[in-house]
Amino acid sequence: MGNRGHLHKQxxxxxxxxxxxxxxxxxxxxxxxxxxxxxxxxxxxxDPKPRxxxxxxxxxxxxxLKKLAQIEECKAWANEALGNVSDRDLFMAGIGLxxxxxxxxxxxxxxxxxxxxxxxxxxxxFRTFFEVDESKMRxxxxxxxxxxxxxxxxxxxxxxxxxxxxxxxxxxxKADAFIRRTKHEFGCxxxxxxxxxxxxxVLALLDALLS
Length: 211
Fold this sequence. Notes:
The chain has 211 residues and is α+β, with helices and mostly antiparallel strands. It folds into 2 domains: 3-82, no CATH class; 87-210, CATH 3.30.1330. 51% of the residues lie in helices and 11% in strands. The chain is built from 8 helices and 4 strands. It has helices spanning 3-18, 23-30, 34-40, 62-82, 87-101, 116-129, 149-160, 196-210; strands at 108-113, 137-144, 171-173, 188-194. The longest helix is centred in the middle third of the chain and has 21 residues, at 62-82. The radius of gyration is 23 Å and the shape is elongated. The mean pLDDT is 86.
């Protein structure tokens, strides 16, 4: 986007702020970060008031509607482009996924991610293409203090299919506003399988793909 586009968004952000829109609403409508909305609207005077959620519901901003329409268009394109996923597709996708978020050293296959869809995909790939002893499947959770551990464990049991009895003691991270503010509700998952031979097979696949 050129400078003109940014200036248009800044002007629009200031107009919406003057109408008492919240920073979250402005960011959503304009497709920008909340921090950008805050910067653009700094100094704008407005009368804070509760938004009327009754009969006079605020009409969605046209830029927000355009954003939603574009997202739906992209989803339709993606579904058509991807089509039905074959075993070969899954095999190659799993290798690429592990190349990005899997452990390359040690004596175990270990995959870490906070996205439940990606974690589920890794588990599906691993169970489909390797001889897996389910009793050796392990899980460890990285979860900030103050978040619901029981809810997180239940969530990841459903995602991974690993019984909670096979979960390692979770790592509870202390919140530090100077490092990061975003906290994943269910934490970061570490799916682990202790087998040096299986790890070597996975790494051999990575080498074969890269060569």
